[in-house]
Write a structure and sequence with these properties.
About 20% of the residues lie in helices and about 35% in strands. It is an alpha+beta fold and about 325 residues long. This is F-box protein.
């Protein structure tokens, strides 16, 4: 500011928005909001936090609207249209600033798989079920807990494992996989795949935890899901170690479903001349957006359209058995 004039007034709204669009780090936008009251109002009124968030995290474009949750008995104030509009602008600014904070920090990442959805195939069920991949052992070798595909003549036949995360909104930073090592006589067998790829999204149909059975494998079909993110392919090493596959950036998983695609088979077993993939450990490391944010799939799941609603809980409350409690 010079001689009491505001730079935004001197540039005008269109040029000011263009200048702000060059900010690439969320912290820079936060700093701009504390320069002056007019700068803060400009950032909020023009939805610049949302614009930056959409640029850095394209998955947020899947949200069709915001559903604000308030505890029962909350008194709704009689506000003018302009006051309500400004309050909504401030709410959106808080939400997308909160999401932006996850994009610049990896603190608090934990293993966040809740349960298994299904596998494309299983060789010996239930002994070699996908559920074994959530029960890692210190040394994975013959006789340890693992999942195995069926054998295939064609090494190009892919396999896939699908998991449900513990929250319907979470930033995923990395996925870790350990292939099985089998020591038989004088030879080591490593049942890795050549490449891996990951898909994140939500189901078009309701999914509930259940005792896993072989018939659940149909649940992994792509047509039953909306994939909001598909990763590039990563090469997998032929090593019996927990291999880390870091995503190019923190990815917002909208819907809690993670599909691990195992592409290409490496090992042909001597006893039947078939190619197998065997995995003994899978971890998805991420950070939940609860208690402030959640997702509402009710319209999408029941086929009524309308997309995914972003649920905003400003009081940090969650609904449970028709009661409200602080989260």
């Amino acid at each position: 500011m010079e001689n009491g004039s505001d730079l935004l007034e001197w540039l005008g709204p269109d040029a000011s928005i263009r200048v702000f669009s060059y900010l690439e780090h969320p912290a820079d936008l936060v700093r701009a909001t504390v320069v002056s009251r007019s700068w803060r109002q400009f950032v909020i009124a023009n939805g610049l936090s949302k614009s930056l968030c959409t640029k850095l995290c394209p998955e947020v474009s899947y949200f069709s609207g915001i559903k604000e949750i308030t505890p029962p008995g909350t008194v709704q104030l009689d506000e003018s249209n302009s006051t309500t509009e400004w309050r909504n602008h401030e709410r959106d600014h808080k939400i997308y600033t909160y999401i932006n904070s996850f994009l610049v920090s990896t603190e608090g990442a934990t293993s966040c798989i809740s349960y298994c959805i299904g596998a494309s195939s299983t060789d010996h069920f239930p002994e070699e079920s996908i559920e074994n991949t959530l029960k890692p052992t210190e040394e994975a070798d013959w006789g340890s807990s693992y999942w195995s595909s069926v054998g295939e003549v064609d090494p190009a036949v892919p396999e896939s494992l699908m998991y449900m995360l513990n929250n319907d909104l979470a930033f995923v930073d990395e996925i870790m996989i350990r292939p099985l090592q089998e020591i038989f006589e004088i030879r080591d067998y490593i049942y890795s795949s050549k490449f891996v790829r990951f898909k994140l999204g939500h189901s078009k149909l309701p999914i509930t935890p259940a005792v896993f059975n072989l018939q659940q494998s149909h649940q992994i079909a792509d047509e039953n899901y909306v994939w909001t993110y598909i990763s590039p392919q990563y090469p997998m090493e032929e090593k019996n170690v927990l291999q880390s596959f870091k995503l190019p950036r923190p990815v917002l998983c909208i819907g809690a479903v993670v599909k691990v695609e195992l592409l290409g088979r490496v090992l042909k077993h001597d006893f039947d001349d078939l190619f197998y993939i065997c995995i003994c450990d899978v971890q998805v490391r991420g950070r939940t957006l609860l208690p402030l944010l959640a997702a509402d799939f009710s319209e999408t799941v029941h086929g009524h359209g309308g997309g995914v609603l972003l649920k905003y809980n400003p009081m940090g409350y969650v609904e449970s058995d028709q009661k409200w409690r602080p989260n």
